[in-house]
């Protein structure tokens, strides 16, 4: 991660603290035939008193934002939900500020039975004055290109699917992390160690 952090710091960004995010997926005991969907539960250092949960994997999936007691409730529903060996993903890193941009550079690790089994670099960029993604899309693209070099020509699929006047909320960040975490979990089947850099936007 030091290479990415060096690039960010060379741009003039200031380290303003640490950043962490964890996600754990709870699978319905009844199985797919029951039409119950997996429940993805998130905690983030930016919102220390909150638990976020997304039901299913679609962009329009039902979700809830609640206090930390909600997570304790989910853990007690052992007759309804179970976890798997690669259910949990943890991101740990640093948070930077550069003018009106907030940058979170972290390493995502899928936790196996005893240790991390797959690692990926994740960079999250936020343009703090604006909560309407469509209004700052070009600025975000230019900033990310300056920072990372080659980037995707189109915005993340989740952002592209938002309405033009739709405001951004914390749950939208969780949706984007979930997209990348799902891809990470699929990668574990190859036994390969991922060292790619993934950028999320908000």
Automatic annotation (TrEMBL):
A Pfam short name: Med20
Annotated localization: Nucleus
Keyword Transcription regulation: yes
Record-level GO BP terms: regulation of transcription by RNA polymerase II
Keyword Transcription: yes
Key words, A-Z: Activator, Nucleus, Transcription, Transcription regulation
Origin superkingdom: Eukaryota
GO MF assignments: transcription coactivator activity
Subunit note: Component of the Mediator complex.
Function: Component of the Mediator complex, a coactivator involved in the regulated transcription of nearly all RNA polymerase II-dependent genes. Mediator functions as a bridge to convey information from gene-specific regulatory proteins to the basal RNA polymerase II transcription machinery. Mediator is recruited to promoters by direct interactions with regulatory proteins and serves as a scaffold for the assembly of a functional preinitiation complex with RNA polymerase II and the general transcription factors.
Protein name (record): Mediator of RNA polymerase II transcription subunit 20
Lineage: Eukaryota, Metazoa, Ecdysozoa, Nematoda, Enoplea
Gene, per the UniProt record: MED20
């Amino acid at each position: 991660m030091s290479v990415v952090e060096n690039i960010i710091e060379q741009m003039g960004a200031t380290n303003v603290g640490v950043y962490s995010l964890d996600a754990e997926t709870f699978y319905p005991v009844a199985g797919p035939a029951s039409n119950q969907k997996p429940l993805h539960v998130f905690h983030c250092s930016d919102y220390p008193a909150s638990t976020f949960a997304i039901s299913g994997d679609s962009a329009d999936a039902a979700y809830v934002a609640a206090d930390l007691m909600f997570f304790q409730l989910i853990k007690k529903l052992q007759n309804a939900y179970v976890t798997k060996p690669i259910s949990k993903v943890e991101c740990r890193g640093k948070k930077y500020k550069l003018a009106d941009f907030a940058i979170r550079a972290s390493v995502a690790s899928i936790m196996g039975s005893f240790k991390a089994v797959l690692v990926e670099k994740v960079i999250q960029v936020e343009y703090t004055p604006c909560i309407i993604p469509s209004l700052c899309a070009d600025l975000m693209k230019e900033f990310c290109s300056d920072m990372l070099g080659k980037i995707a020509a189109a915005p993340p699929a989740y952002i592209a699917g938002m309405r033009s006047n739709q405001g951004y909320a914390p749950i939208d960040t969780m949706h984007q992390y979930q997209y990348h975490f799902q891809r990470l979990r699929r990668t574990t089947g190859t036994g390969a160690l991922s060292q790619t850099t993934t950028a999320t936007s908000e």
